[in-house]
């Protein structure tokens, strides 16, 4: 059964879906030097507002936009839900450690809080999943939802990931790892310094092609295939040689019925860290032609961790809709022999590939096709 995307809700430091896409195409960045916590030094961050946003409020806003975009109104008692997050309500847990007497509503901080909030909003009685696969969470969620629809378990599913990761613990942890940038995010750049944390989320409405056609829904694109693997190697460093990551991409191509030359654009994970960009560039060079167009959008939105793959998937679908390739914002000079999109460009785009790689060796790839 063919699975299509009929609605997208997205919020990033650049705004809602259309605002973010416009800003991205124009080469703008939502990254600013900020000091949200007085006891910590300023960092470049991609905040949605002046101060860190609330996780569940962000989830509700993104869900609202997705349903509105799909022209749907709850309830949906038979709709599947797959909403993931890498950090979840970590900010609330950190606050509870400093004020443990304020435990009212602590059950709303559990790891499945976003998925349950979505399920309650749409009043579903179908299956509800809350995956966590580090920075590969967003793609994992979309894949799981697509398989529910493809196998006929549900006719419609709400899927995606949301992240509000700007907390003291997250900042201190990444800084002590040496992974945080000092001035900005420059994916695949010779001058890359590390990642920049960003807030955001993307939620999708997935439906069977038949249901979408019956109700006259708009279609962004079709979910073709996917690949999910694990390195089983290290808590944070990717496997040398990228064997498992390469296998994930090969699985995705095989399941999609595509050859490497059929892919018109790759949305790369591109975190601007030394190891990720080096290994990902090696993967792309090994499997694809040097002429294939590639970009990472984290120079514009920051790294939204578990939501980053969901944002990347949204940008892939927008590229299919508008036949425009988004630029690799922040890239000046590079040592990698890849065809990076320096400025937004029009192109004939039919098949796109989105990649995500997470701590613990979580590798994910998903392919979309224009309808």
UniProtKB/TrEMBL annotation:
**What organism is listed for this UniProt entry?**
Myxacorys almedinensis A
Q: What is this protein called?
A: Beta-ketoacyl-ACP synthase
A GO term, aspect molecular function? 3-oxoacyl-[acyl-carrier-protein] synthase activity
Which Gene Ontology terms describe the biological processes this protein takes part in? Answer: fatty acid biosynthetic process
Q: Which Gene3D superfamilies match?
A: 3.40.47.10
What region holds the Ketosynthase family 3 (KS3) domain? 1-370
Give the similarity note. Answer: Belongs to the thiolase-like superfamily. Beta-ketoacyl-ACP synthases family.
Tell me where on the tree of life, at the top rank, the source sits. Answer: Bacteria
* Pfam families hit by this protein: ketoacyl-synt, Ketoacyl-synt_C
Question: InterPro entries of this UniProt entry?
Answer: Beta-ketoacyl_synthase, Ketoacyl_synth_C, Ketoacyl_synth_N, PKS_Beta-ketoAc_synthase_dom, Thiolase-like
Keywords, sorted A to Z: Transferase
């Amino acid at each position: 059964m063919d699975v299509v995307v009929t609605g997208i809700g997205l919020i990033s430091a650049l705004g809602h879906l259309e605002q973010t896409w416009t800003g991205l195409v124009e080469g703008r960045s939502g990254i600013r030097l900020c000091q949200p916590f007085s006891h910590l030094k300023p960092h470049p961050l991609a905040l949605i507002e002046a101060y860190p946003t609330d996780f569940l409020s962000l989830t509700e806003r993104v869900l609202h936009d997705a349903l509105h975009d799909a022209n749907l109104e709850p309830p949906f008692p038979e709709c599947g839900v797959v909403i993931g997050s890498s950090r979840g309500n970590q900010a609330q847990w950190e606050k509870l450690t400093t004020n443990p007497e304020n435990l009212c509503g602590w059950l709303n901080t559990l790891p499945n809080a976003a998925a349950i909030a979505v399920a309650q909003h749409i009043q579903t009685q179908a299956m509800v999943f809350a995956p966590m696969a580090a920075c590969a969470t967003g793609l994992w969620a979309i894949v799981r939802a697509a398989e529910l629809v493809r196998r006929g378990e549900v006719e419609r599913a709400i899927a995606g990931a949301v992240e509000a990761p700007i907390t003291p613990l997250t900042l201190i942890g990444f800084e002590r790892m040496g992974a945080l940038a000092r001035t900005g995010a420059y994916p695949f750049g010779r001058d890359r310094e590390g990642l920049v944390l960003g807030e955001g989320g993307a939620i999708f409405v997935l439906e069977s092609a038949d249901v979408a056609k019956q109700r006259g829904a708009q279609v962004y694109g079709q979910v073709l295939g996917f690949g999910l693997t694990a390195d089983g190697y290290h808590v944070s460093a990717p496997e040398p040689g990228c064997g498992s990551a390469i296998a994930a991409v090969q699985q995705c191509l095989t399941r999609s019925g595509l050859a490497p030359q059929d892919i018109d654009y790759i949305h790369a994970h591109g975190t601007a860290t030394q190891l990720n960009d080096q290994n990902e560039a090696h993967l792309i060079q090994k499997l694809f032609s040097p002429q294939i167009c590639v970009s990472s959008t984290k120079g514009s939105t920051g790294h939204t961790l578990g939501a980053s793959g969901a944002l990347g998937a949204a940008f892939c679908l927008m590229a299919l809709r508008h036949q425009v390739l988004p630029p690799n914002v922040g890239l000046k000079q590079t040592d990698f022999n890849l065809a990076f999109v320096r400025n937004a460009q029009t192109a004939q785009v039919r098949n796109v590939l989105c990649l995500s790689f997470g701590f613990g060796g979580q590798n994910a790839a998903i392919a979309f096709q224009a309808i």
